[in-house]
Amino acid sequence: MPRSTLQRVVLRIRDFEQGSLTKRLSTLEALFTRADRKGAAQLCKLQEVNLGLIKAAVELKTLAGQVSVLIHAAGILTALPRILRNAEVVESLSLGAGNTGRSFDLETNRRIAEFKFIHWRGGPETIRQNSLFKDFYYLAEAGGRKVRFLYLLELERPLQFLRGGRSLASVMSRNSKLNRDFRHRYGNRFRVVREYYKYRRGRVKLVDLSPILPALSFEVGE
Questions:
Q1: 115 by DSSP, 3-state: which?
Q2: Structure pTM?
Q3: How far apart are CA 212 and CA 209, in angstroms?
Q4: What single string gives the DSSP state of each residue in 132-199?
Q5: CA 119 to centroid of chain Cα atoms
Q6: How far apart are CA 149 and CA 112, in angstroms?
Q7: Could you tell me if 166 and 192 are in contact, meaning their C-beta atoms sit under 8 angstroms apart?
Q8: pLDDT, tens digit, for every residue of 119-170?
């Protein structure tokens, strides 16, 4: 996205929000209450709610997705000098969205690793939990003798999930490939997450990266 386009989009959104999106939306809710078709059209014109606003929001969302990928890549690369051991050499990296054809985010001559730069908010976090279990499972079941690491931005809530009683059927319900692989390997041996985690917890080291990447202590999304 050209810089001029980015500036235009940011200014358009900022003008609409008027300092607080929550307050702005509350105001609009009150303004549009009891409006008829003609009144709604007039209010849209007066409040500058139009297709231009939608386009700006869509463009900003697209950019935000690119920023999340950049954070993931920069986080991994910045962490490397701090986590690599003497004589340890990078063999492959996957810095983009997904693993881009590679099995893991990082593979060296000594380790395999996944990185999850997300913030847990507490309460129901189905998508985060599903993603965490997937990464833990594939690390735990990988062949070879390399040490396996799962790098996170905190340990408390991820561990609460891994030690918890959410059903594996629920966790894997939206990932047919993972479900097939898991059931082929274990059948119905495990019913809930904690049963599998207890069985495989010794194979994957969970590490909190926030002390060495303090810039990521701010919420950055998925």
A1: strand
A2: 0.79
A3: 6
A4: HHHHHHHHHH--SS-EEEEEES-SHHHHHHHTS--BHHHHTTT-HHHHHHHHHHHTTS--BHHHHHHH
A5: 8
A6: 6
A7: yes
A8: 887 777 899 999 999 999 999 999 999 999 999 999 999 999 999 999 999 9
